[in-house]
């Protein structure tokens, strides 16, 4: 493993934000919110003062430039590199947003890179730099077409491995494809290229891509019957080149734990409660004024009666003196 580093700050950058997501699967009754997963987030400068990452391991031909990128492969033949999280992704529902860059100067290029949510970690091999017969989810950004008639490349596809099924390079994984889409223009794009993979257990798996315009997300695929992820699975990325080559860069990784907050619902009759309270308040207010007036009159009568009685008593007393 080789590290070329221009260290601009010490320590791994950590995120601690909470965010509301207004988009949620149709069958989820509630408001989807998210909390950053610091253990699976990786942003510049990527490394700490000891030239290590607290949460990720790097290997193969990976090169890290702390102010720019993590380069899984350079634009050279026969390279392979990888990065993998050190701790499992234990969230039940999650979202991973990745900024990446596939670029090079050659007219012929390959092979691509992959994103992994697998039981295995840091296992080099022939599938975009990762071991075959994997257990878990692989999302492949395949830039070289071997044998997929009628399919436009680059092609993005997902495959769920059971630990026994092999990825067939000769057919570009056609027989084991879970879902996929063509993404012409994702290589050497003029805008930051990103992927966003969102998973709700037993509900949905969705992949969105940004490569046409900044801030414009294009849905690649969504399935309402997602595979069950391994109970212990790691987040990783890998890439490889053969006779043809390209630069495959990871710019940032931001992972989030998703949870569903119940929607606040009020009965329709509740809308009439405020006027009722106001009406009740007016009745109480008018009633209190009437009571106060009656009491005031009674007090005046008592005072007047007392005065009359006192006057009569004094007159009677004076008459007795004479």
Describe the structure.
Pfam families: Lectin_leg-like. It is a single-pass type I membrane protein. Residues 34-258 form the L-type lectin-like domain. GO terms for molecular function: D-mannose binding. It is found in: Membrane. The protein has 322 residues and is an alpha+beta fold. The protein has two domains: 18-261, Jelly Rolls (Sandwich); 268-321. The chain starts with 17 loop residues before the first strand and ends with a helix. The longest helix has 49 residues, at 273-321. The protein is 15% helix and 35% strand. The strands form two sheets. Strands 1, 2, 4, 5, 7, 13, 14, 15 and 17 form a nine-stranded antiparallel β-sheet that branches. It is elongated, with a radius of gyration of 36 Å. The protein contains one helix and 17 strands.
Looking at the structure, the CATH topology of the largest domain is Jelly Rolls
Mean pLDDT over the full residue set: 85
What percentage of the residues does DSSP assign to strands (E)?
Answer: 35-45%
CATH class of the largest domain: Mainly Beta
Low-confidence stretches: 1-23, 268-273, 275-285
Portion of residues within helices: 10-25%
> What overall geometry do the principal axes of the alpha carbons give?
elongated
């Amino acid at each position: 493993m080789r590290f070329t580093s221009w260290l601009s700050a010490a320590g791994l950058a950590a995120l601690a934000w909470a965010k509301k997501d207004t988009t949620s699967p149709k069958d989820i009754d509630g408001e989807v919110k998210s909390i950053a997963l610091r253990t699976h987030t990786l942003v510049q400068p990527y490394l700490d003062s000891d030239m290590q990452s607290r949460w990720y391991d790097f290997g193969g031909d990976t090169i890290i430039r702390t102010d720019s990128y993590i380069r899984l492969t350079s634009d050279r033949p026969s390279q392979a590199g990888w990065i993998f999280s050190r701790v499992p992704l234990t969230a039940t529902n999650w979202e991973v947003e990745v900024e990446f860059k596939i670029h090079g100067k050659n007219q012929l290029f390959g092979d691509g890179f992959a994103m992994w949510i697998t039981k295995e970690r840091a296992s080099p091999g022939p599938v975009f730099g990762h071991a075959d017969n994997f257990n878990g989810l692989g999302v492949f950004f395949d830039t070289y077409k071997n044998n997929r008639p009628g399919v436009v490349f680059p092609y993005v596809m997902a495959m769920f491995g059971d630990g026994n099924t092999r990825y067939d390079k000769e057919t570009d994984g056609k027989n084991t494809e879970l879902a996929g889409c063509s993404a012409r223009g994702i290589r050497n794009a003029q805008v930051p290229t990103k992927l966003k993979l969102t998973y709700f257990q037993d509900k949905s798996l969705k992949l969105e891509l940004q490569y046409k315009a900044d801030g414009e997300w294009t849905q690649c695929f969504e399935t309402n019957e997602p595979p069950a992820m391994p109970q212990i699975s790691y987040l990783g990325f890998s890439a490889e080149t053969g006779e043809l080559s390209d630069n495959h860069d990871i710019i940032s990784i931001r992972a989030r734990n998703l949870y569903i907050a119940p929607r606040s619902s009020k009965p329709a009759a509740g809308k009439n409660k405020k006027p009722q309270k106001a009406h009740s308040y007016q009745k109480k207010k008018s009633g209190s004024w009437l009571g106060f007036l009656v009491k005031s009159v009674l007090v005046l009568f008592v005072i007047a009666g007392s005065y009359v009685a006192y006057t009569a008593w004094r007159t009677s007393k004076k008459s007795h003196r004479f």
